[in-house]
Each structure stands twice: as structure tokens, then as C-alpha cells.
Design a protein that fits this description.
Hypothetical Protein Aq_1857, Chain: A, two-stranded antiparallel ribbon, 94 residues, alpha+beta, 3-stranded mixed β-sheet, 2 helices, globular
Length: 94
Amino acid sequence: MLTVTNAAKDELKRIQETRGLAPGKCLRLVTPPQWVGEGDFGIGIDDAREDDLVVEHGEVKVLLVDFDLRQKLEKAVLDFKQTPRGAGFTLDVF
């Protein structure tokens, strides 16, 4: 199963709180073709679906991952850390 570190959960919760998402909306991990930004993945805003993996931080839903993507990322780790390019999310796929 995809592992989401506490540092990533903290940042996802901070983003969610500062963005003031509409009721029912949540952050979602996306990859191409849904993700069209820089890099191999990104975080978007979406509604929850029945087959989503829901990542919680405390009692707050902080991230959604669809069924197909979570199958592909079974042994991956989503983290938020300092990188040579600055602070950001990293997705280590093993």
C-alpha cells in the first residue's frame, strides 16, 4: 500500500486549510494524463469516489488516491522534504 509520511500529511493538511476548499472537496494525488504540470505527479482538487484510498491525518481527509494509481504505487512513499530544488513533495517508487 502507498505510504504517506507524517511530513507529507502535515503539508497536505496545511495546504487544505490555507486553500479553503469547498465542502466535499479534497486533495488528490494525480499522474499524467490528469497531471499536466511539471514532474511526474502532482496534487489536484477533486471529489471523493467510492473506490478511492482515503489518507487521513487525525480525523481529517487529506489525500485521495484512485484505485488504479494506488495499484501502481503499492510500494511507493509520498513524502514532503527539502530537496535540491527546495521544499516539496517526493514520490519514491520502489
